[in-house]
Write a structure and sequence with these properties.
With 291 residues, this protein is α+β, with helices and mostly antiparallel strands. The chain has 8 helices and 10 strands. Strands 1-6-7-5 form a 4-stranded antiparallel sheet, with no helix packed on it. It has a 4-stranded antiparallel sheet with strand order 2-3-4-8, covered by helices on one side. A hairpin with a 7-residue loop joins strand 6 and strand 7. The protein is elongated, with a radius of gyration of 20 Å. 40% of the residues are buried.
Length: 291
Amino acid sequence: MPELPEVEALAQFLRDHAVGAVIGRVDVAALSVLKTFDPPIDVLAGRDITGAARFGKHLGLRCGQEDGLWLITHLSRAGWLRWQDNPSQTPPKPGKGPLALRMHLFAPDGTTPAIDLTEAGTQKRLAVWLVRMPAEVPGIAKLGPDALDVTEPVFAELLAKSSARIKNALTDQSVLAGVGNAYSDEILHTAKLSPFATANKLTPEQVSELRVVMRSVLADAVDRSTGQDAARLKGEKRSGMRVHARTGLPCPVCGDTVREVSFADRSFQYCPTCQTGGKILADRRMSKLLK
């Protein structure tokens, strides 16, 4: 799933490539992608793209000036944004292939590119909203402070209120916006914290260090991602990971084997030596810590 660094890079990509273009036809290839009906999607035709922004893990395009509308998307686990220099002008057939929505553009340089939103697989969680204000999107309305902007006092207060495992607290978007499964693995590994540590039981020193590490890991990933072509962002994300999705490989810090905890529909990775004092965390299905 695209997280804060990738969505921020996509927003910058759209600022560089889409802002200033005029929207032409909008093709909806998957009816399930649209979560709003008023205003209708076809009112975008003829509007200028005037901005692009990130809201947690949501990506937004501002369409128009004073009466501007926002096209907001959440790419979810299998969604992605693709820039097409030479898109097909034939309207797509609904339900055929990964294409969910295509926005045709008239660029200032005279070209006619398009923005594609695609989704692999069959779960169909990619979502698009057309709203007058971003806060009309339920997921944006519930967002906590942004992970890159949160101050130390606010961060400490948020964790003090949470009895969740720190892994879950970091990825709860109502607590903190922007961090998902992958970067929480990287943040906790760098901070040398167990994913199963309880958020409100961390010491003040651990909380302070965790915030510093979180901002550093995310800022570094943003720096690596910004300027990349949208098609290369997934590869860039994978290349920077130290433990996430590296089960069975040696930890780059200590050489111990990276371990995994599996859930029904996801998993996370950690290093026992760096994070849990050498203990192997049990699979959630076993509901205990192996000793």
